[in-house]
Write a structure and sequence with these properties.
- The complex is a heterodimer of chains A (694) and B (292).
- By secondary structure, chain A is of the alpha+beta class.
- Chain A is built from 27 helices and 17 strands.
- In chain A, strand 11 and strand 12 (193-195) form a beta hairpin.
- Chain A starts with a strand and ends in a 12-residue tail after the last helix.
- Chain B is an alpha+beta fold and 292 residues long.
- Chain B has 9 helices and 10 strands.
- In chain B, the strands form 2 sheets. In chain B, strands 1, 2, 3, 4, 5, 6, 7 and 8 form an 8-stranded mixed β-sheet that branches.
- In chain B, strand 5 and strand 6 (134-145) form a beta hairpin.
- The mean pLDDT of chain B is 93.
- Classes of the chains: A alpha+beta (694), B alpha+beta (292).
- Chains A and B meet through strand 15 and helix 10 of A and strand 4, strand 5 and strand 6 of B.
Chain lengths: 694, 292
Amino acid sequence: MAKDVLLEIGLEELPARFVDDAETQLKEKTANWLKEQRISYAAISSYSTPRRLAVHITGVAEEQETIEEEAKGPAEKIAKDESGNWTKAAIGFTKGQGKDVSDIYLKEVKGTNYIYVSKVINGKSTDELLPALKSIIESIQFGKNMRWGTQTLRYARPIRWIAALFGNEVISFEVAGVATNNVTYGHRFLGDKVTLNHPNEYKTKLENSYVIVDSGAREKLILEAIEAAELEHGYKIPVDKELLTEVRNLVEYPTLFIGSFEDQYLKLPSEVLITSMKEHQRYFPVKSMKEELLPYFVGIRNGDTNALETVIKGNEKVLRARLSDAAFFYNEDKKHSIDFFQEKLDRVVFQEKLGTIGDKMKRVTGITELLSERLNSVEVLRKNALRTAEICKFDLMTNMVNEFTKLQGIIGEKYARHFGEEEEVSIAIKEHYLPVQANGALPKSEIGAMVSVADKLDTIVGCIAIGLTPTGSQDPYGLRRQALGVMRILEARGWDITLEEMLDFTLQLIKETGIDTNDDLEVKQELHTFFTARASFILKEESVEQDITQAVLHEKIGDVSYTISKAKVLSEKRSEEAFKPVQEALVRLLNLAKEMDATDVDPNLFETDSEKELYNSYQNVKETYNEKKDRKEAKDALDVLSTLSEFIHEFFEHNMVMAEDEQIRANRLALVQKIALLIRDYADLAKIEWKQNF
Amino acid sequence: MNIQEMILTLQKHWSDQNCIIMQAYDVEKGAGTMSPMTLLRSLGPEPWNVAYVEPSRRPDDGRYGENPNRLYQHHQFQVIMKPSPDNIQELYLESLEKLGIDPLKHDIRFVEDNWENPTLGAAGLGWEVWLDGMEITQFTYFQQIGGLEASPVTVELTYGIERLASYIQDKENVFDLEWTNGVTVKDIFFQPEYEHSVYTFEESNTDMLFQLFEMYEQEAKVTMEKGLVFPSYDYVLKCSHTFNLLDAKGVISVTERTGYIGRIRNLARSIAKAYVAERERLGFPMLQKEEK
């Protein structure tokens, strides 16, 4: 007969961020174990709160399934002697399997006969096996582990009880000095010690003891309470998914309350209010139907409604203290000037060899200037970009950012406006941090994009030039993320500039400021390798396959947006039937041109029409190709190159490239080489695995 | 309940849990953790249970007695138990009830907080305990002290006395808190708060402090070489406080800062090792006592 299993690990409060993942692990590991052990069951449910992780398995068989297994022995010619009798090898094998030679049968495997025996493995009883749940408990992984008391087990938090039942029997084992029992504990303050007579009492008995063990149910309760509050008061309470998940994993029995703060604090930037509420206190901010912040907040108590006013009063007091600090900082900061904060940047070290943040911002201004020259930015844009580059980090020195670190840039924008900076500059100060995550929002303004790129290039090139290239998981300055940011901005902006050119002028500028950089060639090689890996990553994200990535990045990254377009065009072409003859002609030519020096072609040495025609078409194509390239028309550029294919066909058809006459041979090879250079300028098509045959 | 009664209540409670009730340590320090009664004694295998009030000086937090929440010197009630008892959370919650905090009328939470003190090469995992959203206690299981693995594990509870009192007495301003009948924090601490702020930010003799740092560091090294663990540690504490004074005055740049912290950490690490070695030489007396 089948029975239920319950396993509950009782813990001191787990960090909220570990709860969901640990619950999933417990469920999966248990299911895998049951499968490995051939123990059948009906269903498995998992539960979690900050103080417990649990699984309830219904219909667990009392025995493992019985199975028949085939054991393979030696080959027949080893198992039998010349007279056909079983050898020692055969007897040994059967004995080892607990069988007799009479059980042997033969089976052919790849043309050879082997001896086999078949054996029935009887299932053990489940209750004998269940104590192995111990190792499942011990195998759960957490982001950060600790030890406690005299125990050696490393776990997210101390284990304080374990309830383990098979039917109404306790499954007996011990983890970190804690023996299993049929006892669990309700809510820390509202609940009691709960004895479980059967696994199926688990959910209800705990609910009666003020613990909602199903995290989904807790989330639902919170959401319903929020909706009810919206309806009752005419509020709009935006629910941040991440915060909701955190909050439901901070409580066992959620009860919503609404607190308020003084209207005067609404004068603070809304980001300051929201950060204080959400990140520091885990409250949901409250808005009006018109999306304006209201002086209220929604908190979730771990408990019932008893003395809720006291809880509200306490929470209001804490928030008030935070906001009054923030208001003090806000008013203090605004008494100063941008120069006041800028001066302080000269005293903060950015990196020992790369100097202070002040030094860095002078370089970023220089890079921004070079960039604006290359992009032919109009004067007002250039002026605003330079001003942004100069002052975009001043807010790091304000009290407000010191207190609310995550608001860097956001506070900068507000203060810049307050101190009378141009609107474009103020916005760009905030935007120059973008994208914050590799896939995050990009700067919307041209100035924000320029300064963002300049700031990131300075950090990346600076760090790599002094030997701080990221290795493995070590990337303390976030160079990889910043490089992706640079390329995503370049892709979006489509500026007419190659990445290599920017890297070169950045390195040059860094050297000119007297920083002791490593050998130039080495640094350039490192940068190339580093950025190629990032470019490959971006192309992979765009679903471009490895071989095409190598084809377009074979020499340099070039103009990022154009390179990406080329990769996309080639991805389509690789399986296009009509492109097959084109590709074959171009690749044939590339293969012949491998590792050759470029020499001049002398039209007077042409012997055949096909030679002349190829040369003429090359000259026409070259001109059109460059026009298309300048306009970044990746598809058209390839189409233009494709027109060469029939001439190439003809050329190979009617000419011996390796002609007897040395002069003629050299001339033909020079022609091949010239055309190869042009094709490779687009991509090294020989690196692509063409798939038009399918 | 006034602060004096709070302290007496906590002392009684933890005394009943077999904690030794110590007095504050007589060298300036930034946190109760830095008292040798915590930092050194939590090292090694010997059991150790202790509770004490520790006045903690944070020169950088000085506000001339004008800020309602920040103080140059505040008070911590420190509880140390090694090995950490299995029912430590319950013992702690009982102490709150004795302070008149009825858990059914409040929202008490254990919110993840991992503590680290690079100056002391110390790190631990645990929580900040929230009372209706306010942090009132740091609750930490030490994992590493002075760069050494903590085994068995010590649990440290640090109650912020003024924080807790402002809640219990329902006061917005720390200076309005009642210390004992008719005597407020302001009566006792306003003048020192003001004067220490003036001293720290305006009047301290920077050259002298730099010299003192060097002298204290030197003395810490010399005494340590002679195997005098406790005297050496006193000088480390003096180094730490001197550094805090210099740092608050803003005369230490960011790079130098790392250097100074590194110097103090190196001293703390070698003292931690020397302490354990010395206890071992003495045959871990507290361990033997327990066995008897």
